[in-house]
Amino acid sequence: MSLLEGRSAVITGAAQGIGLAIARVFAGAGARLVVADIDGDAAAKAAAELAADGAEAIAVRCDVTEEADVEAMIAACADAYGRVDVLVNNAGITRDATLRKMTGDQFRQVMDVHLYGTWLGMKHASLRMREQGGGSIVNISSISGKVGLPGQTNYSAAKAGIVGMTKAAAKELAHLNIRVNAIQPGLVRTAMTEALRPDIWAEKLAGVPMGRAAEPEEVGKVALFLAGDLSSYMTGTVLEVTGGRHM
Description:
The chain is an alpha/beta fold. The chain has a single domain, classed as Rossmann fold (3-Layer(aba) Sandwich), CATH 3.40.50. The protein is built from nine helices and seven strands, in the order βαβαβαβαβααβαααβ. It has helices at residues 17-28, 40-52, 67-81, 104-132, 144-147, 153-173, 191-194, 198-206, 216-227, and strands at 8-12, 32-37, 56-61, 86-89, 135-140, 178-185, 238-241. The chain has a seven-stranded parallel β-sheet with strand order 3-2-1-4-5-6-7, sandwiched between helices. The protein is globular, with a radius of gyration of 17 Å. InterPro entries: KR_dom (IPR057326), NAD(P)-bd_dom_sf (IPR036291), Sc_DH/Rdtase_CS (IPR020904), SDR (IPR050259), SDR_fam (IPR002347).
């Protein structure tokens, strides 16, 4: 596929998991990549692996809660490739705890990375996209932001906030030919989820009508759809990638 041939894409949290899977799918579609992650060494390793497979990829260390880092990340893409066509706001953390046990720091950390980090990414990417005549922003939310999950008052709030922010930004930026959409993944097979206790994994899987977890690349393919021209008349949308869970 060459759906992103000649286009540049910045992906945050791209050194592992869903972010790396998105980068791999985008590379296969011809994108030139900025692999951004708070772990600079891991980002460099991921970019090197992508380059070894034939992709154009550079690594940038970025803490998405630091505006200077985010601005520099976007600038690195423009400097390397001449434009910023796609931004995927994927970086995220979890600090799960019950409402009774969760600390204020745990709540704020999750909100800062997911909400403030996504807002910073949209702000600085859209400034570049405005100048070049358009672009596509894909925000990674979660099904937790739709239904709310116990032990995740912070994460559920942040992921729900991403949906509202996506819609507001989509309305602001549509006249500039900048599209903003979101994805809500459900149960995805990653190192984090595979570390769950077998009984917890089985309980989650039982709620998926398709009877299996998603592979990270399946989220990547939906991100590819939203990033490119196949979704050219879509903005402010939220696509669930859940296998039917929480319909």
